[in-house]
From TrEMBL:
Protein's GO biological process: endoplasmic reticulum to Golgi vesicle-mediated transport; intra-Golgi vesicle-mediated transport; intracellular protein transport; retrograde vesicle-mediated transport, Golgi to endoplasmic reticulum
Self-association state and partner proteins as the record states: Oligomeric complex that consists of at least the alpha, beta, beta', gamma, delta, epsilon and zeta subunits.
Protein name: Coatomer subunit alpha
Purpose: The coatomer is a cytosolic protein complex that binds to dilysine motifs and reversibly associates with Golgi non-clathrin-coated vesicles, which further mediate biosynthetic protein transport from the ER, via the Golgi up to the trans Golgi network. Coatomer complex is required for budding from Golgi membranes, and is essential for the retrograde Golgi-to-ER transport of dilysine-tagged proteins.
Locations listed in the record: Cytoplasm; Golgi apparatus membrane; Cytoplasmic vesicle, COPI-coated vesicle membrane
Keywords: Cytoplasm, Cytoplasmic vesicle, ER-Golgi transport, Golgi apparatus, Membrane, Protein transport, Repeat, Transport, WD repeat
GO molecular function: structural molecule activity
PROSITE patterns in the record: WD_REPEATS_1, WD_REPEATS_2, WD_REPEATS_REGION
Pfam families: B-prop_COPA_B_2nd, COPI_C, TPR_COPA_B, WD40
Membrane topology type: Peripheral membrane protein
Length: 1190
């Protein structure tokens, strides 16, 4: 059996399933009753009014009620919707063992240790019958599901069947008063409403449980004698049919399965409902399912093949016609939980492959007749076989997994093995993965394996996968585990992972490439980028078979086909946004009823606040979205509606960022932020309004504000006056003296007397004057851009004709010439502004004196600036573009282009993955050269940061701004050709250090080279071979020169140098050198061999030829005096680290980049030839051209 749900609690005494909902009641020894949702695994409610253990509990089949009985002698009836006990039934004199509702009548039957069974009317809340006759504890009592019978089991070793027909007749047709009077005496003397029909004797010890069969005249009982007995009854008698033995302890509960021919028994209390079984034990309970609830099915085009009961059925999606195809097994021929697990279908051959867990895993192959459906009950002869799983992989081929040997057998429709393949990983299940391919599932990964070529096509690390669902075009695949969904493409490149808190059941791809899946209680969607959401809620779990438009076709747990209508608008809208189909988005916004906080949050999160703006009515949310999208017009309108200081302040910040100084001014006016206003006028050069700010500060009696404004204006006389009025005479004297106001300074000096501050004598004073602004008043230069698709199409949505006329009437410019600060008098606290003005005018009435406060015309609030620029020239904040260097990295897998883009990390990762390079020290300067060579820097002015410009290959002024060319590369293949020639020359001239430096430089540059054609790729690979041979040979030559003390080692290294593939001119020099060294060392045979090799090269130098012939003659038949580790007859390569020969047939490892060979002990070390890659590491190979991807 399969565990579905488990809890931990005190001892469970009673259990009851709800008839419709996925609920189960558990009564505990602690006196608590728990209500669980076993599907979700959550505790819904708990009821704890009983005093002591609660042994019996039962749900009503239609009302929101359940009944419980406990050791406190009480029967309680509860309403779980009201979360309380409705009433208590009293009458039993000892522990109550079981309680049960009648299916039809308002009755409750209860059994008790007081040796009685009572039947209660829960509507009238009275006891209607007492059944006496047992002479020991009555352990259980239950109604017959259809007939007027009650069965009871007692520790007196008997099972009794009671006839309650008279009680039913009395309930249906009430009797006269005399009959009612006799009913009242029932409790005292026992009535004739219930009589014993049968007494079943046969158990040797006390009987713990007895129950009726739901439809047959059978009774099953379990007792302390460890036996389960089956009884049959008719109208006149009952007799024992069979005895079932096997329990090693007392049988405390036994019952029939509701549908199958199964008896379930155990040593703790159990309850059963359809396919579910619950068992309570000392520390909790477990809910089991007897069989898999998921039907086996396979979708092929417009058809769905599935297994229901014992038939293979066909459902057509277009016509919704359901028909029986063939019977697949005989009734009762399958054991528990061994029904069909998976189904695979071959549409061309009309073949069905059904897998089950029979015999540890087996399959059955059925060939369906071409003429379609059949109704015969004769089971077709199926071709059978054993295997963990089986799937069709071609028209007439299917693969079978053998888990023991980890092999896959490919078989034909005659069930004959055609081919066998060993799988690359330890596989427990295989799935279909395209023609000729299988998807192998291990515990922590999945692998696509090509059975024909025996190659691994893709690998992905995943949690344990239960189901694999391919899209219709086989381009995408979804892996379903218990609580996660992994989306990948056909090569198993990971795209996204989605985690769920509850179990994922099933899924299917819709026509738009969206994955629709179900959990226990929802239908949900998963977009290609990993975004998900809920489509609708489910009452019961379903298994999706196909998604078409707004219809979801599915199978329920009973194997019935259902069509569920869903609203796909939300995920289609999001998909259109992701795919940038903005015309589709516009159409959906206009025509559909999209709304809700979820859609708004999604649009805001994904960078489309301007779209979200059209779904929002709340002004605060509109304000936030408008700021985020840069829509100042909507932000101003919302700020006016909200009219809170914080919102005006944020509006000012955004307007200042955009350079819209008119709105900044307006926002500062609304918040009475005079200090910021003054500074704004200073930087914009608006001296006229700055002068007005000075007057306002004076009216407010703000000394610091006056001084700052005078400082901004450069008005020295005003500053001296302010300091003098504030009592700061020394500062006023210094200010006047420094700025050359002699008369004022003398007057202040007289007032100061002896306290006149001294001024520095040798210092040249400089005037503290405000700088000249770059722009004098007005907005900063605003970038005029084309309005986006959303701004143009959506701005008019929802606007009335009156609103449009109002906007036209207000005008198209921000602000006005006068300063709008509202009511200045309201700012002057504890003072009368008119009195101040009158006082000033009274002191000096001539036209030139005093402050001209008449100019301070403060316009009313209605003259607020409006962002009503006409639609054709409306400013829209441009969306920051993607840097060209980022486009380079997104479009390319070439390490050189990533380095040119400045993305050194990804360049290093690519080199590591492609060539196994792990030492990036030699490449650092090359990375920097590539980056600097593909960028230029534009200096504009001292106050503006330097602008970095990416230099593209083949850029043209007429080219499209949306199409970006690859970067200009400073390293060209032609440069390496020139460097190779220099290296050759240095080698010829014997400048070995210079030659080695040049050859290494070539090897270090090639990983970052980018070429255009396949032919050039071959040339690059050939250049790697050439440079490798020369580097290896030159390093051996250096090693030879260091080995002065070992003559044998010198000869060996010289001999190995001759094995390198060199240019003929260099090979002659190497052979000449080796010949001379070996001759001097007394190894005449080896020297003679080198002389012959030299002559075979047809040397152009007469001296070389002459010397070779002389050595050949001198050596004659002389033997070698020293044994060298060199055999010119046996082909070999030289280890690049130890410089020893590796002869043909010996094991070796190679460098993934330069392909130098090494002895196995060098694996994992840095290659000594190229000095870049790690020997023996896995790498995909050199990738230096876009043509390699085509």
């Amino acid at each position: 059996m399969l565990t579905k749900f488990e809890t931990k609690s005190s001892r469970v005494k009673g259990l009851s399933f709800h008839t419709k909902r996925p609920w189960i009641l558990a009564s505990l020894h602690s006196g608590v009753i728990q209500l669980w949702d076993y599907r979700m695994g959550t505790l819904i409610d708990r009821f704890d009014e009983h005093e002591g253990p609660v042994r019996g509990v039962h749900f009503h089949n239609s009302q929101p009620l359940f009944v419980s009985g406990g050791d406190d002698y009480k029967i309680k009836v509860w309403n779980y919707k009201m979360h309380r006990c409705l009433f208590t039934l009293l009458g039993h004199l000892d522990y109550i063992r079981t309680v049960q509702f009648h299916n039809e009548y308002p009755w409750i039957v209860s059994s008790s240790d007081d040796q009685t069974i009572r039947i209660w009317n829960w509507q009238s809340r009275t006891c209607v019958s007492v059944l006496t006759g047992h002479n020991h504890y009555v352990m259980c009592a239950s109604f017959h599901p259809k007939e007027d019978l009650v069965v009871s089991a007692s520790l007196d070793q008997t099972v009794r069947v009671w006839d309650i027909g008279a009680l039913r007749k009395k309930t249906v047709s009430p009797a006269d008063d005399i009959l009612r009077l006799s009913q009242m005496n029932t409790d005292l003397f026992g009535g004739i409403d219930a009589v014993v029909k049968y007494v079943l004797e046969g158990h040797d010890r006390g009987v713990n449980w007895a129950s009726f069969h739901p439809s047959l005249p059978l009774i099953v009982s379990g007792a302390d004698d460890r036996q389960v007995k089956l009884w049959r009854m008719n109208d006149t008698k009952a007799w024992e049919v069979d005895t079932l033995r096997g329990h090693m302890n007392n049988v405390s509960c036994v019952m029939f399965h509701a549908k199958q021919d199964i008896i379930v028994s155990n040593s703790e209390d159990k309850s059963i409902q359809m396919n579910l079984l619950a068992a309570g034990h000392d520390s909790g309970m477990i809910v089991f399912k007897l069989e898999r609830e998921r039907p086996a099915f396979s979708v092929s085009g417009d058809s769905l093949y599935y297994v229901k009961d014992r038939f293979l059925r066909l459902f057509e999606f277009s016509s919704q016609k359901d028909s029986q195809v063939i019977p697949i097994r005989r009734p009762g021929s399958v054991s528990l939980n061994q029904g069909p697990r998976t189904l695979s279908y071959s549409p061309t051959e009309k073949a069905v492959l059904i897998c089950s867990d029979v015999d540890g895993g087996s399959y059955e192959l059925y060939l369906v007749s071409k003429d379609g459906v059949g109704r015969g009950d004769a089971v077709l002869d199926a071709k059978k076989g054993t295997g963990g799983s089986a799937v069709f992989i071609a028209r007439n081929r299917f693969a079978v997994l053998d888990k023991i040997t980890n092999h896959v057998s490919v078989k034909n429709l005659k069930n004959e093995i055609v081919k066998k393949s060993l799988l690359p990983i330890a596989t427990d299940v295989i799935f279909y993965a395209g023609t000729g391919n299988v998807l192998c599932r291990a515990e922590d990964r999945v692998v696509i394996f090509d059975l024909q070529q025996r190659l691994v096509l893709g690998e992905l690390m995943t949690p344990s996968v239960k189901y694999v669902i391919w899209s219709n075009d086989m381009e995408n695949v979804a892996f379903l585990s218990k609580h996660a969904i992994i989306i990948a493409n056909k090569k198993l490149v990971h795209r996204c992972t989605l985690h769920e808190t509850i179990r994922v059941k099933n899924g299917a791809w819709d026509d738009n490439g969206v994955f629709i899946y179900t959990t226990l209680n929802h239908i949900k969607y998963c977009l290609p980028n990993g975004d998900s959401g809920i489509i609708r809620t489910l009452d019961v779990p379903i298994y999706i078979t196909k998604v078409s438009g707004n219809s979801v076709f599915c199978l329920d747990r009973d194997g019935k086909n259902r069509v569920i209508s869903v609203d796909a608008t939300e995920y289609i809208f999001k998909l259109a946004l992701i795919r940038k189909k903005y015309d589709h988005v516009m159409s959906m916004i206009r025509n559909s009823q999209l709304c809700g906080q979820a859609v708004i949050s999604y649009l805001q999160q994904k960078g489309f606040p301007e779209v979200a703006l059209h779904f929002v009515k709340d002004e605060k949310t509109r304000f936030n979205l408008a700021l985020e999208s840069g829509n100042i017009q909507v932000a101003v309108a919302s700020a006016k509606e909200i009219d809170e200081k914080d919102y005006w302040y944020r509006l000012g910040i955004e307007a200042l960022r955009q350079g819209n100084t008119s709105i900044v001014e307006y926002a500062y006016q609304k918040t009475k932020n005079f200090e910021r206003l003054s500074f704004l006028y200073l930087v914009t050069g608006n001296m006229e309004k700055l002068a007005k700010m000075l007057k306002i500060a004076e009216v407010k009696n703000d000394i610091m504000g006056q001084f700052h404004n005078a400082l901004y204006l450069g008005d020295v006389e005003e500053r001296v006056k302010i300091l003098e009025n504030a009592g700061q005479l020394p500062l006023a004297f210094v200010t006047a003296s420094v700025h050359g106001l002699v008369e004022t300074a003398d007057r202040l000096a007289a007032d100061l007397g002896d306290s006149v501050p001294s001024l520095p004598q040798d210092k040249v004073p400089s005037l503290l004057m405000p700088p000249k602004p770059l722009m004098c008043s007005g907005d900063w230069p605003l970038l005029r851009v084309m309005r986006g698709i959303f701004e143009g199409g959506l701005d008019t949505m929802g606007r009335t004709h009156e609103e449009e006329e109002d906007e036209d009437a207000i005008g198209a410019e921000w602000g006005d010439d006068d300063l709008d600060i509202g009511d200045v008098g309201g700012v002057v606290q504890n003072g009368d502004m008119d009195a101040i003005v009158d006082g000033e005018e009274g002191e000096d009435n001539d036209d030139e004196g005093g402050w001209d406060l008449e100019d301070l015309e403060l316009p009313p609030d209605v003259d607020t600036p409006k962002a009503a620029v006409n639609a054709r020239s409306q400013f829209v904040t441009p969306t920051p573009g993607v840097p060209v260097s980022q486009i380079w990295t997104q479009k390319s897998s070439l390490a050189g282009e990533h380095a040119a883009a400045g993305n050194f990390d990804t360049a290093a990762c690519l080199l590591n993955r492609q060539l196994g390079i792990n030492n990036f020290g030699p490449l650092k300067s090359l990375f920097m050269d590539l980056y600097m060579g593909s960028h230029s820097y534009l200096y504009i002015s001292a106050s503006v940061p330097t602008v970095s410009l990416a230099i593209e290959k083949g850029w043209r002024e007429s080219g499209s701004a949306n199409l970006r060319n690859p970067p200009v590369m400073v390293f060209q293949f032609s440069q390496l050709d020139d460097k190779l020639k220099l290296a050759y020359r240095a080698t010829t001239e014997g400048k070995f250090p210079e030659a080695l430096r040049l050859f290494l430089s070539i090897l270090h540059t090639i990983p970052l080279i980018v070429v255009e054609s396949r032919r050039e790729v071959d040339d690059v690979k050939e250049l790697i071979m050439i440079a490798r041979e020369y580097v290896l040979g030159l390093k051996m030559e250096f090693k030879r020169k260091e080995s002065k003390n070992s003559l044998v080692r010198q000869q060996e290294l010289a001999a190995y140098f001759t094995n390198c593939k060199l240019q003929k001119i260099h090979l002659r020099l190497v052979l000449l050198s080796a010949m001379s060294i070996c001759y001097k060392g007394g190894n005449f045979t080896t020297a003679a061999n080198f002389a012959r090799m030299l002559l075979d090269t047809n040397p152009t130098s007469d001296s070389h030829m002459k010397k070779a012939k002389q050595v050949l003659n001198a050596c004659g038949d002389k033997k070698d005096s020293n044994q060298l580790n060199y055999d010119f007859r046996n082909p070999f390569v030289v280890c690049g680290a130890t410089y020893v020969p590796i002869y043909r047939g010996q094991k070796d490892v190679s460098c993934p980049y330069c392909l130098s060979r090494f002895v196995p002990s060098i694996a994992g070390q840095l290659c000594q030839v190229c000095e870049l890659a790690v020997v023996g590491s896995d790498a995909s190979g050199l990738f230096c051209s876009p043509s390699q991807t085509r």
